[in-house]
Amino acid sequence: MQTYDYIVVGAGSAGAVVANRLSADARNRVLLLEAGPASHPWARIPIGFAKLINNPAANWLYSSEPEANTNGRKIPVPRGKMLGGSSSINGLAFVRGQAQDFDSWAQMGNQGWSYEDVLPFFKRMESYEGGDDAFRGREGPLRVTNPQPRDPLYAALIKAAGEVGISHNPDYNGARQDGIAMSQATIASGRRMSTARCYLDPIRKRKNLHIETGALTEALVLDGKRCVGVRYSVGATKHEARASREIVVSAGSINSPQLLELSGIGQPERLRNLGIEVRHALAGVGENLRDHYAPRTRWAVGAKGVTFNDRGRGLGLVGQALRYAISGQGLLGMVAAPIRAFVRSREGLDAPDVLLGWVPMLTEQGPKGPKLSRQSGVTCYAHPMRPESKGHIHVVSADPRRPPAINFNFLSSPIDAEITARAVRIARAVMTAPAMAHLRMTEIAPGASQTTDEEILDWVKQAAETTYHPVGTCKMGSDAMAVVDAQLRVHGIEGLRIADASIMPTLTSGNTNAPSIMIGEKAADMVLTHAAA
Ligand SMILES: Cc1cc2nc3c(=O)[nH]c(=O)nc-3n(C[C@H](O)[C@H](O)[C@H](O)COP(=O)(O)OP(=O)(O)OC[C@H]3O[C@@H](n4cnc5c(N)ncnc54)[C@H](O)[C@@H]3O)c2cc1C
Questions:
Q1: What domain range includes position 272?
Q2: I want to staple 309 with a disulfide (CB 3.0 to 4.6 A). Which of 15, 376, 416, 439 is the partner?
Q3: Taking residues 39-56, what's their average pLDDT?
Q4: What global pTM score does this model have?
Q5: Which residues line ligand 1 (CB under 6 A)?
Q6: Do residues 531 and 495 both lie within one domain?
């Protein structure tokens, strides 16, 4: 049995960062365990997003339980399973969220998590050339760029947004989020900038960091109320490793609560019913699940040559491949939604509450994943950014290989339904503004005849999926349902922290990769500060 100073479980957006920062001091012996493989060829280039979203070689491929507000559908819950975790398969959009998101975490009693507190970590993690030095980082490991050149469709959208009162904002990760902008992305020179690429590749030679891939952590080893190690398997072989200082669980919002429950930490009755020995009662494990339930409005485009349905099929695809080879741009080098807007759904709001994202194509499900439709068109998703509906994730068996049950309870909070209907109307307003007229758009879904809230929401229930942002299942706080404290230490257990998207008490206003990486940065800082004390 090997002993390390620190063990990090999960090499995803947050875990790779924690392992990098902890092993920067050669005296710290660090073990990083990752259930998935070291890499996948499609993880290198942005379009790989479409190839990995259904691919069991690099994706856990979870799905939710059927619910009333999904019309009984199971909603896909893809999660990255390889070094870099979900940052290796995600849509590459880079969005920090709003200052208010983090201020509200601090107001809940989480000292050290206000925007002022987290801003240095957002700056430390990135290298970005634009924006204002007061907000943006220049020398961090993660390269962030504006990869997509403006083209006629994006120019029209920016103008159309202006016509309905949404102004252009060149840096939504700067002083304010409001407005429409070209997406910032974790793409550089046409390559995906995952945490594997940016935080692990450069330090592969560190002798004090042992990265073990294909290693499924099956349980935490507890000595009374102290976590002292982990049990994991590589193939059929079982292993145990010990940590003399701390174990950091960064297995993500689905697998972190699963691992706690498998280890006997959670709701006692639920665990007992599955034959799992209760080691520590903690009511909040697996609760407080939130995600963005996002309808995709679909628009046919009459004008020729505007979308990738026209420019990315047949000979057009050859052109796109050449373009990518020369400039790293176009269909193959694209962030999942190259243009986005942060919008207030009604007057009087302090900050935007709705996110719109445009994709310059229509896709449909093919046998091997999403493929370009024959029809030329544009997709625009629109959803509330800070949903209040909460669900839960719980193990259904003591078997670590059995997926947990995921219940989102989408739209169970009436305000989410109300804002979703408004979001769809805002998408419509932009798409039908005068500046779009020359593109000859026709609404396909939900369809111009669907006008009342009831009609729009009926369609949402039939068609919406998530934007793959589950958070909150090991939430940070000091109330009875909190799982970790503001130092990310599991309540009541020594030597154990959680650092990943599961600790977010609420969803941030936007995509969740950037805040997850920030959480990794901040967790590592806390661990190192604690060790130095
Ligand atoms: C398809 C998709 C598209 C997305 N698009 C965007 C986007 O465009 N922009 C954005 O900001 N966000 C996006 N996200 C969300 C974002 O990527 C995630 O919120 C973020 O990566 C979560 O980071 P994490 O560290 O919490 O978990 P992850 O990055 O998922 O890392 C968890 C890691 O732990 C490993 N692991 C889990 N269980 C175990 C175990 N028992 N033993 C060992 N290892 C284990 C996993 O394999 C994984 O590598 C997307 C996500 C997906 C899936």
A1: 1-114+193-289+390-410+470-533
A2: 376
A3: 96
A4: 0.98
A5: 9-15, 33-36, 53, 78-81, 85-87, 89-93, 95, 215-217, 250-253, 255, 259, 336, 468-469, 500-501, 511-514, 516
A6: yes
